[in-house]
Specification:
- This protein is α+β, with helices and mostly antiparallel strands and 414 residues long.
- Helix content is 40%, strand content 17%.
- The chain has helices spanning 13-23, 37-47, 64-70, 76-83, 102-107, 109-113, 115-118, 121-124, 126-129, 131-144, 149-155, 173-183, 209-213, 219-234, 239-245, 250-262, 305-312, 372-386, 405-413, and strands spanning 10-11, 50-51, 90-93, 97-100, 187-192, 198-202, 236-238, 266-271, 277-280, 292-294, 333-338, 341-351, 356-364, 391-394.
- A five-stranded mixed beta sheet has the order 10-11-12-13-14. The chain has a four-stranded mixed beta sheet with strand order 1-8-9-7. A three-stranded antiparallel beta sheet has the order 2-4-3.
- Strand 11 (333-338) and strand 12 (341-351) form a beta hairpin.
- The termini are far apart.
């Protein structure tokens, strides 16, 4: 490749794909034993971040990467890790709203301090627009926390809780203030309710004491540590996908990559069809990949869609915000990983009232292996059991869509 030093290692696309799968913990079959809290912590440590999202049409976003790598596990393990002291997971704005290790929380302190430029409009402006509510909410949490937004709102009955302007979710003033306090690091999340509401509390009552006592690194040191975590979790990546992992700006990410290269933590590589890329020096390329998993749209393996297209030759987008008549794959489509390939895209809905996992659409991806229908059927049964659903069915009143529906139906009948 013109302009590339001759001693820079070269990776084929297949090698890069297998390297990425191993780094993500998706290159081999899952353990057949019952997962433990230690297993959950190991996956969280490997990935560095578990993205949180409110969509629950199939399963909570932060649970899916764990299921993909561990198989059926008890979600209460995550609740305990994030909801009981000393916490092994805490919430922070990392890739987006995310669970991270407490030590990683400290690495994001510069972002919390820079809330005025790092947060979005209504959050960044909260102390100027709603200063008295900020003080009152902090006082309530200090005296009575942890509390949900609804509980704080009930205690601040004298506050105008009309909808705040400029925020797409149409939060009221109390919610905006609590999210500002969370983003800026003045309060933390002590856990979640059964309805997945945050329970806010003073950050000093959420973080482990040892983490609170540790000095917070400056921005350059913190970004360098975050970039090292990103490259380790990715295995190999371009500047764009490394920066995206913790939503960093490209200039400080590039500077961190140069420093980590000098320190021997990462190395530049050439990957067929990519621009400049970096590989973690501890990353290894397996001879083959034999994993099987349903991937959340928010799984670190696929959340940066350009990288997904490069690795798997698949242009994949989440379509929950796309009008129904314009959707290509479906409302909440999950890639199905089989071996080294994404073999199918399936639109799934957990019909909890009926006790059914509904397949609303199933599409075969080009060059998918012949055993995709059978393997997908087995994975869907496994997922249904994990979610406490009694069966897998195709369609929901209307027939399921997609060219994989017939083969999948026959596989599920066996």
């Amino acid at each position: 490749m013109p302009g590339v030093a001759p001693d820079v290692p070269h990776l084929s696309l297949a090698q890069a794909r297998r390297l990425a799968l191993r780094a993500a913990g998706l290159d081999r079959p899952r353990p057949e034993r019952l997962p433990t809290g230690r297993d959950v912590a190991a996956v969280a440590d490997r990935l560095g971040v578990l993205q949180i999202d409110s969509v629950n049409v199939f399963a909570r976003a932060h649970l899916m990467p764990l299921f993909a790598r561990l198989g059926p596990f008890d979600p209460a393990l995550v609740d305990r890790a994030a909801g009981r002291a000393p916490r092994r997971l805490v919430e922070a704005w990392a890739h987006q709203a995310s669970f991270v290790a407490p030590d990683t929380y400290r690495l994001l302190g510069w972002r919390r301090r820079a809330y005025a430029t790092e947060a979005w409009g209504s959050i960044a402006g909260a102390p100027l627009r709603h200063g008295s509510v900020v003080d009152d909410a902090l006082a309530v949490l200090r005296d009575e926390g942890p509390l949900t937004a609804q509980e704080v709102r009930a205690r601040l009955q004298h506050i105008d809780t009309s909808r705040s302007d400029g925020w797409g979710w149409n939060w009221d003033v109390v919610k905006v203030v609590l999210e500002y306090l969370f983003f800026s690091g003045q309060v933390g999340v002590a856990g979640r309710t059964g309805g997945f509401e945050r329970r806010y509390d003073l950050v000093e009552r959420v973080l482990p004491a040892a983490v609170l006592a540790a000095p917070e690194p400056d921005e350059a040191d913190a970004v360098r540590a975050l970039v090292a975590t990103s490259v380790r979790a990715l295995g190999v990546g371009t500047l764009r996908c490394v920066a995206d992992y913790f939503r960093l700006r490209t200039k400080p990410t590039a500077a961190a990559l140069a420093e980590l290269t000098e320190a021997g933590v990462v190395e530049p590589v050439v990957v067929d069809g990519w621009g400049p890329a970096w590989r973690h020096v501890g990353a290894t390329v397996p001879r083959a990949a034999h994993g099987r998993a349903l991937l959340s749209p928010f799984d670190p393996l696929v959340w940066e869609r350009t990288r997904t297209e490069r690795l798997f030759g698949l242009r994949y987008r989440i379509e929950i915000y796309t009008p129904a008549h314009q959707r290509v794959w479906g409302y909440y489509v999950l890639p199905f990983l089989l071996g080294e390939r994404i073999g199918a895209l399936v639109d799934l809905k957990a019909d909890r009232q009926a006790g059914l996992l509904r397949v609303l659409a199933a599409h075969r991806v080009a060059d998918a292996a012949d055993d995709v229908p059978g393997q997908l059927g087995d994975e869907l049964r496994l997922a249904a059991g994990w979610l406490g659903l009694r069966d897998v069915v195709l369609g929901n009143g209307a027939a399921a869509a997609g060219d994989l529906v017939g083969p999948l139906s026959r596989a599920l009948e066996r």
